[in-house]
Specification:
alpha+beta; 4-stranded antiparallel sheet; 6 strands; globular; disordered N terminus
Length: about 425
């Protein structure tokens, strides 16, 4: 007999029914908030990385009509999931739509960055702020199907609990793999005194190039000037990530560790301007005492299902790296410490910065990556400059005639002292254009 995918339940007075609805509603809200950025930013003018899903199919998906249709499906699916109507089917649809949006969004030319290995080779890594939520949704949907196959189609609290267990297992796996990846690449030397000074300075230069205000004060810049203090914070973060499987032991450990994860992401946003708000939101949902575990559900809450999800997610993440979304094997801040050139648009004397996204239609990170690629491939400034000129030529208001490309090199010594140097590269527009 097939599971009843369309069962509608009206026993809202049952113990825990409201708590289960709150959990479903919060999870649906997180998905809608996370999907807002891709739905808003995808458009037909985007450029794609060759060989990606977006390169092959993106132009069919980024049209206004297609985006509106996908957004509508997400909203309807989120509403049905929240009120427990077609619950598992709605979650499967939400997961599928979100996955398509995320994969296309991460196929953009500038949706990532380049890291340098110890041997000097370069490797492109996509941004990872949507990976945890994607894996949590996939795991939750799979566990929802498991609940139906177990014969719980008419027991919404058990279905919701199974969905929650899938999410908990994915969260634990994501952070555990992150810790394992760091140690695999850097060993116990990952908590390095150079990390905070180097990346705080580098990311501040990127933000300045994007037209954002940067003030060199507060705790972030205290860590730049006092790099040894950062090592303690890095050890705390690494041990916390290794501890995340304890989430699966029960509500108490889950509350403590998920609260730590929320604080961790708020701290990285404050210190490094690394925005993983989607991760923080899903961790915040996981720390809440929902869905309610009534006495009759205690044995189910201790079942091996979340541990199975954890194990599968760990194995697939380590196997696939980030080649297949939503699996992720990202040793953040474990790349070799090499000088990095930050390329910006400025006035001839360098005193005035021009907003890179506004004039060059890409973030400062993307402009800098293009320059680094041109250097490594021996192209010189020629092709790179032509691409910049093409993107800035028809800007309204126009890029000021005296605009130059500047390169600021950011480096760090083994003791954690940041060293920078800057110089103009070339005028953006030819001299004749400037007069």
């Amino acid at each position: 007999m097939l599971p009843d995918w369309t069962a509608w339940h009206d026993d809202w007075s049952a113990p825990g029914a409201t708590a289960s609805a709150i959990f479903r509603g919060l999870l649906a809200l997180v998905v809608l908030l996370a999907a807002f950025e891709p739905v808003k930013e995808l458009n037909p003018q985007l450029s794609w990385r060759e060989g990606t899903f977006g390169f092959r199919f993106g132009r069919r998906i980024v049209t206004p009509g297609a985006r509106a249709a996908l957004a509508s499906v997400l909203v309807v699916g989120a509403a049905l999931f929240t009120v427990d109507l077609f619950t598992v089917a709605a979650l499967v649809v939400i997961t599928a739509v979100f996955t398509v949006l995320a994969v296309v969004y991460l196929s953009q030319e500038f949706a990532g960055y380049v890291t340098e290995e110890d041997d000097g080779t370069k490797k492109f890594k996509v941004h990872h702020h949507l990976h945890l939520l994607g894996m949590a949704l996939l795991s939750a949907a799979a566990c929802g199907v498991v609940a139906l196959l177990e014969g719980h189609a008419m027991e919404p609290r058990i279905v919701t609990l199974r969905i929650a267990q899938g999410m908990w297992g994915a969260i634990a796996a994501h952070y555990f793999v992150s810790a394992v990846s760091k140690v695999r690449k850097r060993g116990l030397r990952w908590p390095d005194r150079r990390l905070f000074p180097f990346y705080i300075t580098l990311f501040a230069r990127y933000r300045a190039g994007d037209g954002k205000s940067v003030e060199e004060k507060g705790l972030p810049w205290f860590l730049v000037r006092n790099p040894n203090w950062g090592v303690l914070l890095l050890w705390i973060a690494l041990l916390m990530e290794f501890s995340t499987p304890l989430i699966l032991l029960g509500p108490g450990p889950r509350l403590v560790l998920c609260a730590c994860l929320v604080l961790f992401h708020l701290s990285t946003l404050w210190l490094l301007a690394v925005d993983f708000r989607e991760n923080a939101m899903i961790a915040a949902v996981a720390l809440l005492p929902v869905p309610y575990l009534a006495d009759s559900l205690t044995s189910l809450s201790l079942a091996p299902l979340p541990w199975a999800v954890f194990a599968v997610c760990v194995v697939l993440s380590l196997a696939f790296d980030d080649r297949i979304y939503p699996f992720s094997n990202l040793p953040m801040f474990a790349a070799a410490y090499r000088p990095i050139s930050v390329v910006t648009l400025r006035s001839a004397d360098g005193s005035v910065r021009y907003d890179t996204p506004k004039y060059a239609h890409c973030p400062t990170t993307g402009l800098s990556r293009e320059y680094a690629a041109a250097e490594s491939e021996g192209q010189g400034l020629g092709e790179f400059l032509e691409r910049v000129r093409e993107r800035t030529a028809h800007q309204n208001p126009p890029l000021p005639a005296d605009a130059f490309l500047w390169a600021e090199v950011v480096d760090v010594t083994p003791t954690g002292r940041v060293v920078t140097s800057e110089a103009p590269l070339t005028r953006v527009q030819p001299e004749a254009r400037a007069h």
